[in-house]
Amino acid sequence: MRMGYGRVVCLSAAMVLVMQFACGSVEADSANGRRIAERWCAECHVVAPGQRHASDAVPTFAQISGSGRFDEATLSAFLANPHHSRMPNLSLTRSEIADLVAYIRRQTH
Ligand code: HEC
């Protein structure tokens, strides 16, 4: 019996979905990082190009990413426990931190 073309397309689409679902839990999601940033960080930081309002004297995400002072590990550690006096501890989960780190590190690229 021949499989119809439509059926093959449908099966491959289902496979892609399953693969994305399976990988989603491990891989950081920078799009979600952006949503978290806009919600929790944009009050003080410029989190994306074009944002007009933020606090003075707070580094933008592009500056943080471009400064070379943070790699993935140090940025995650900072966000898990910000010991800066002026930076609030936002009690982020590990997956929120991973998504934010992925997002921040993409800012200069
Ligand atoms: C209430 C204001 C405020 C909010 C909200 C805030 N920050 Fe900050 N953040 C600051 C300030 C102020 C500093 C600079 C602290 C200093 O230099 O003393 C800072 C510093 C940082 C730094 C370190 C920069 C460096 O070069 O040392 C990172 C990384 C950072 N913030 C990430 C975030 C992320 C991610 C969020 C959202 C989850 C966030 N911040 C939310 C105020 C805020």
UniProtKB/TrEMBL annotation:
InterPro entries: Cyt_c-like_dom, Cyt_c-like_dom_sf. Pfam families: Cytochrom_C (PF00034). Keywords: Heme, Iron, Metal-binding, Signal. Residues 1-28 form the signal peptide. Residues 28-108 form the Cytochrome c domain. One of its GO terms (molecular function) is metal ion binding. This is Mono/diheme cytochrome c family protein.
